[in-house]
Structure prediction request, 135 residues.
Amino acid sequence: MSSDKFDRPAIKLHTGDVLTLQNIGGQWKKHESGPDLSLVWIQGEVVSCTDDLDQVELKDQGCLGTVSGCQSIPGGTTWISEGMYVMVIGEVMGGGNVKAVKIVDLSDDSVYKTMWEHEVAEAKAVITENPDLFT
Prediction:
């Protein structure tokens, strides 16, 4: 991931939204004139993990997405297990795959899961109303 991607905030999206992003000119977007959504913040329940814990599958609103490169994040992922509710910040790789930059266990407080839909809706509204903030 190039360092300039860290100059913009990670955009909160549902896994289903990540599945629909298109690579346009090297940037991941919903549509051609949309902002760069290459760095995303997703949340969901871990439904499966590879044996080496380098890849997990997340479920959010019935959609499945893949998080890869988990072992390369600071602190590793030896603590990840199926059924956990986690937050992932990562780089969109295409096809519903996000390369992890940061993963946090949110399982201990149900408010994170409860508020997630509202947080994503608010983020989408901000992007729609102020697209120049993300260019």
